[in-house]
Amino acid sequence: MMNLTLKIWRQKNSNDKGSIVDYPVTDISPDMSFLEMLDVLNQELIEKGEEPVAFDHDCREGICGTCSLYINGRAHGPSTRITACQLHMRSFKDGDTIYIEPWRAKAFPVIKDLIVDRTSFDRIQQAGGFISVNTSGNTQDANAIPIEKENADKAFDAATCIGCGACVASCKNSSAMLFVSAKVSQFALLPQGQVEATDRVLNMVKQMDEEGFGNCTNTGACEVECPKGISLENIARMNREYLAASFKG
Questions:
Q1: pLDDT one-digit tens code per residue, 62-94
Q2: What is the CATH number that goes with domain 2-111?
Q3: The domain 118-132+146-248 is classified under which CATH number: 1.10.510.10, 3.40.50.10610, 1.10.1060.10, 2.40.30.10?
């Protein structure tokens, strides 16, 4: 069992200044997940009549991406290719001090404590994330459309992006290029995505800029911290798509 000191960012709302507050936790099992450890802390706070720490979570299976936390200076914590809910306390040592903060980005304003508003990602997808489908009664089976395996694999890899925002949090410029490029790539690589290809990339990049995300300077931190290992190759592909679409437009 472990005894730890948690230094957690507490902030009532987006207008509050916020600060780091220390919380000791005891008898933490190394087999607990990081979120289970926070559950233990919150139960203790509730029993004391104190306000529990607000943090986001849903599936706790590394699928939804909502458990986004900045842990000891790294998105999702010290381990790679996992989300915060998949991080276990055996990754830490007895007596450790753990810093827990929300994502830091202008486009991700803090809602409360460790929860940030990531609806900017939703608006980017809504700006261009769709394909035309023939529903006239003569619909073609998608499996009947020949697709090169290499392209299919790359499209599938891009589609594994869960939109957690780790790329933004780890980027010194708070750039969303990796996220947007993954969403552009998953359609750009498939024939079904060609009808809206030009408008899609132009609209999504425009929306990304309007949301206040920074520019990409190719430091590569986004790929390193991405829990799904989304490749920087997608950013290069999006840039090519954007350039071609600009000439067409």
A1: 999 999 999 999 999 999 999 999 999 999 999
A2: 3.10.20.30
A3: 1.10.1060.10
